[in-house]
Amino acid sequence: MTRNRFIIGGPAPWPAFTAVNDSIRGGSSTSSFAVNHETNVATFAGHLDYTTLGGAGFASQSTTFEPSRLSLPRSTTSGLFLTFLPPLSPPSHKTPTKFTLNIKDSKPERRPDGRRESVTVYEFEVDVEEYRDDGLFDEKVDADVEKGEGKARRSVTVLAKWDDFKPFYRGKPKEDAAPLDPSAIYELSFMCRSNFGQQQGDFSLDIVSLSAAPAHSTSSNWFRTVCQTVSGWWSRLVGAVLSLFGRESRDGAVRLE
């Protein structure tokens, strides 16, 4: 059986991350990236502000792969497994819960003033609030559970398929962009943005790991689902036939007449 390849987190070390916030455009959002060396869980946190820029704001932390690119060819991988710890409590009004995992497969050029030119960014969005109940426990069960405020939580893993990463250019969808080339990933980042005033304030995302999903993971899951569905249909069909033309014996077996 092919195992998932851990890229960062889990048993793999975390690379250095650098802040890329809306302050480069005059905004006030901030972000940080810290790793707990006992658990190897990284926390992407900060404050998201959209008032300074009139409704738009973002905070992000990025890492680059150079001189060698991160190579995850489509022939051997189907996407990325993002594993994180869901929030313990419901969010307050406009508290950020939506985060994006961003990938660049081309290296931005530098302008004369040192700023980077814009390139196509491929984005996958996840709303951690949707997984809050999936991560809660009534009691402690094993090592992957974290306690807090009388509750416990465990990690949740989401599959981000390559084709689920949508291309954007300067914050707008780029319909004519080429498909993401995961065999030559230059930059990877975690972002929290206002989505034009939909969320703001302090945010925090505990990231357990990021790993490559084997190419067969999607197809095998699909095949298993089809088999289970067909099996269910067949069981119901047999049950219906037996109820119409059969009867139960004293020992509980069904016999056809």
Automatic annotation (TrEMBL):
Q: Mind telling me which InterPro entries this protein's record contains?
A: Galactose-bd-like_sf, NADH-UbQ_OxRdtase-assoc_prot30, NDUFAF1
- State the UniProt keywords alphabetically: Ubiquinone
Q: Please report the stretch or stretches of sequence annotated as the NADH:ubiquinone oxidoreductase intermediate-associated protein domain.
A: 15-71, 122-207
One Gene Ontology molecular-function label: unfolded protein binding
Question: RNA-binding: present as a keyword of the record?
Answer: no
Which biological processes are named by the entry's GO terms? NADH dehydrogenase complex assembly
The answer on whether this UniProt entry bears the keyword Kinase reads no
Question: Which family is annotated?
Answer: Belongs to the CIA30 family.
Which PANTHER family does the entry link to?
COMPLEX I INTERMEDIATE-ASSOCIATED PROTEIN 30, NAD(P)-BINDING ROSSMANN-FOLD SUPERFAMILY PROTEIN
Task: Specify the protein name.
Answer: NADH:ubiquinone oxidoreductase intermediate-associated protein 30
Naturally occurring in which organism (per UniProt): Rhodotorula toruloides (strain NP11) (Yeast)
Lineage per the UniProt record? Eukaryota, Fungi, Dikarya, Basidiomycota, Pucciniomycotina
